[in-house]
Write a structure and sequence with these properties.
alpha+beta, 5-stranded mixed sheet, 7 helices, elongated, binds dinuclear copper ion
Length: 331
């Protein structure tokens, strides 16, 4: 078991909790695992004991001088079945159920009205993330969530078309995103760092390419980040990026994507206002650098099969490079 347990840390492990809710679930998991181990050891002990008993006399493979050993008296056998088959499972399972029910209210704590709310919508196949600002207005981004360390956060989870499941194992349990309703999940990070989330419900072709970066920051740094995200995009710097910005608009990218501060105001695809500052591209499929931007714009369907975005394979290499240079500048 040691090599197995040694592999349980990392950015996407429910057994390496970085949040209050994940810690509760990890504790429950260890109790369940411990209980299962005890029961397994008991069954193995009985099996070992039985295998050590010799066959009753008269069996063909018995040596002729082996002393005959009687079967256990029927009452003892009945008692073993009653205790091992009825009493122990009822007691063990009832205790674990009671413990699980007792933990549940702590997974759904009441939140103060001032608590940070993050709206996450499961799209095919990426995550639309919205931060409603106290001053009014909304910051929208995609496939990346940043959270202030130590503060409880309310997630409002929804989906426009199919069911997804939002899961950041290091922070807490998963919850379904169901079309037509808003599910609420509370997470409270207890450790700063970068974690990985994933879609935990099969939702179509690119379900396995629907990851999410979650970064937990000290509260002051988080506020700074949110302010930066609320700003419109910077104007392009340099001839290449300027050409890229023009090509982006000329190719009609702005019909699906918004870049705040430019005429691009599409609502269907991810908001790209600060796409260059993100930790990954295409929901965790590629790194967010110029090479990856060019590859994704030119060959979206190859990088991410099933993606709704068409591949702009007709663009020249230098045009792709210009668009990529501009996108990378959108810090
Ligand atoms: Cu979204 Cu699976």
């Amino acid at each position: 078991m040691l090599p197995v347990i040694a592999a349980c840390s990392g950015p996407q492990s429910a057994l390496d909790p970085a949040g209050s809710q994940a810690a509760i679930l990890a504790t429950l998991w260890w109790w369940l695992a411990g209980g299962a181990l005890l029961v397994w050891a008991g069954v193995m002990a009985v099996a070992w004991w039985v295998s050590r008993r010799r066959q009753p006399a008269g069996q063909p493979d018995d040596p002729p001088d082996a002393p005959a050993i009687m079967d256990p008296p029927p009452r003892a056998a009945h008692r073993l079945i009653l205790v091992g088959g009825v009493l122990v499972p009822v007691v063990v399972l009832t205790a674990l159920l009671g413990y699980g029910l007792w933990l549940m209210p702590q997974l759904r704590p009441a939140l103060p009205g001032s608590a940070l709310t993050v709206q996450v919508s499961g799209e095919q196949w990426w995550w639309r993330v919205r931060y409603p600002l106290p001053s009014g207005g909304t910051v929208e981004l995609a496939n990346e969530i940043r959270l202030p360390l130590g503060e409880p956060v309310a997630f409002e989870l929804s989906s426009p078309d199919v069911i997804h499941s939002f899961w950041v194992p290091a922070l807490g349990g998963k919850m379904d995103m169901i079309p037509g309703r808003s599910n609420r999940l509370v997470l409270q990070p207890t450790r700063a760092g970068r974690f990985r989330g994933a879609c935990a419900e099969y939702c179509g072709t690119a379900h396995a390419l629907m990851a999410l970066d979650v970064v937990v920051l000290p509260p002051a740094k988080f506020q700074q980040w949110l302010q930066d995200q609320a700003r419109p995009a910077l104007p392009p710097q340099g001839a290449l990026a300027e050409r890229g910005a023009r090509a982006f608009l000329a190719q009609g990218c702005g019909a699906c994507h918004a870049v705040r501060g430019t005429p691009a105001d599409g609502r269907m695809g991810p908001d790209l206002t600060h796409v260059g500052s993100r930790l990954s591209l295409a929901a965790g499929t590629l790194p967010a650098d110029a090479e990856a931007f060019a590859r994704f714009v030119g060959h979206a369907g190859t990088v991410k099969p099933g993606v709704r975005m068409p591949s702009f394979a007709m663009l020249q290499e230098d045009e792709l490079a210009a668009i990529a240079a501009w996108l990378e500048q959108l810090q």
